[in-house]
Q: What sequence folds into this?
């Protein structure tokens, strides 16, 4: 397929749907009025809207459609499972496809000890499960999370989240017992500070400020960490920091929960982002890319940690058979080709973006692992002042040209396409991105 924009955006059919949506759908969603996509169908990395416009999708429904839109084999497994049975409460009974998926995830997760899996329907629910399990297993009540983190919007997950004030405004009070600490951000480190020094400082704050002044270390159940911060701006921490953090947790009987909801399932060029850091988290939370778009959350823990008794946690829909079938096929495809593809094409895009960065006066930093790539937009490369408005203009310009991208953090643009993209797709996206950037740089904006 190829990009083809043939109407004004939004087109007449899209406009009708958007008007109805505005009248009846909750206004709490974060739709961007400048990117009014109304999808009619999807195929691989391309989506066609209701007016016949074809876009290249570099957001994958926020890092979800890992095998592309409606992959033939995923659709086949969904339809085969739907014809057998659609639901049977996994809380009370058994089905083969769920236990097979648990076995597969247990085998894939880093670490030697055998794992157990709790299934839910979303990222936030996977986090809720980890919160409850960590308290249950350790009998401790306190948690550590990071500034800039996003763990979801249910009350427990939102209590860990420290992303944007609008997400918390008018919702206080939250679940007590969460203390936030800085996440090591190399790009925004004080001038001259090395990568490891930045990490050491964050760890020092935890050890010598938090543990010595506000939270007794032996009352901490778990540290929640995104191995790569997603909504916070695609920030990659130093390897030594992650290793030192897990060592500190182990010394003190604290569990390390890796929130791999966005970074997991092959997106970074390895099945789990934690593998890049050589660590074995005690609990891993997954969702998004796990089932190519069907709702599924998974919380994986060593069997010695997942020691709760029947009735302590359950979910009617969690681990739905159709989602499990889609996940098994998704994992098979990821293992056969798409994790490798994410690593290769990700490297290719990153190299090209670095060249664009050198030429541009607005790109402060380009970073990424696999197909989890962030481009931080700034007003000035020396002061590094964030430029959220410029970022928004670039996203809009790209959309007008048929490329769907999203922002994250304060002023970062993310590339998180389906893991199936080809070099040709990458080149198309890069040339549209460069053109959009140039348009904004030249100040030749038409009508935003
Ligand atoms: C790292 C991370 N954790 C948790 C969540 C919450 O997932 P969901 O929206 O499926 O509840 C997200 C969503 O963006 C996320 O990026």
A:
């Amino acid at each position: 397929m190829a990009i083809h924009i043939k109407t004004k955006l939004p087109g007449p059919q899209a406009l009708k749907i958007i008007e109805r949506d505005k009248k009846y759908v909750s206004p709490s969603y974060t739709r961007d009025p400048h990117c009014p996509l109304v999808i009619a169908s999807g195929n691989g990395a391309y989506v066609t809207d209701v007016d016949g416009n074809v876009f290249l999708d570099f957001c994958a429904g926020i890092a979800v459609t890992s095998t592309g839109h409606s992959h033939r084999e995923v659709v086949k497994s969904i339809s085969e499972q739907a014809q057998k049975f659609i639901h049977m409460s996994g809380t009370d009974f058994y089905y083969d496809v769920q236990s097979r998926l648990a076995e597969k995830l247990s085998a894939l997760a880093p670490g030697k000890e055998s794992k157990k899996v709790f299934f839910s329907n979303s990222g936030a629910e996977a986090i809720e499960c980890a919160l409850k399990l960590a308290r249950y297993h350790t009998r401790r009540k306190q948690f550590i999370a990071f500034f800039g983190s996003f763990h979801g919007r249910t009350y427990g997950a939102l209590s860990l989240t420290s992303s944007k004030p609008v997400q918390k405004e008018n919702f206080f009070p939250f679940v007590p017992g969460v203390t936030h600490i800085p996440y090591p951000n190399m790009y925004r480190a004080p001038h001259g500070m090395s990568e490891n020094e930045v990490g050491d400082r964050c760890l020092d704050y935890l050890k010598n400020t938090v543990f010595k002044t506000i939270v007794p270390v032996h009352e901490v159940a778990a540290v929640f960490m995104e191995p790569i911060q997603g909504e916070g701006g695609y920030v990659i921490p130093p390897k030594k920091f992650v290793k030192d953090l897990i060592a500190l947790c182990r010394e003190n009987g604290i569990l390390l929960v890796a929130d791999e909801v966005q970074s997991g399932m092959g997106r970074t060029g390895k099945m789990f982002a934690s593998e890049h850091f050589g660590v074995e988290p005690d609990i891993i939370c997954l969702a998004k890319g796990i089932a190519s778009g069907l709702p599924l959350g998974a919380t994986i823990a060593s069997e010695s940690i997942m020691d709760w008794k029947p009735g302590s946690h359950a979910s009617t829909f969690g681990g739905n058979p159709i989602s499990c079938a889609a996940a098994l096929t998704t994992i098979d495809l990821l293992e056969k080709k798409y994790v490798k593809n994410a690593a290769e094409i990700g490297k290719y895009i990153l190299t090209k973006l670095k060249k664009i960065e050198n030429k541009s006066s607005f790109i402060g930093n380009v970073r990424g692992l696999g197909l989890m790539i962030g481009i931080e937009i700034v007003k000035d490369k020396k002061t590094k002042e964030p430029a959220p408005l410029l970022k928004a203009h670039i996203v809009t310009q790209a959309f007008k040209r048929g490329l769907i991208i999203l922002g994250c953090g304060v002023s970062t643009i993310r590339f998180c396409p389906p893991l199936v993209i080809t070099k040709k797709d990458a080149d198309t996206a890069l040339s549209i991105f460069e053109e959009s950037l140039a348009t904004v740089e030249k100040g030749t904006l038409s009508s935003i």
Remarks:
- The chain has a mean pLDDT of 97.
- Residues 321-359 form the longest helix (39 residues).
- Residues 62, 122-124, 127, 150-152, 226, 230-231, 259, 261-262, 287 surround pyridoxal-5'-phosphate (CB under 6 Å).
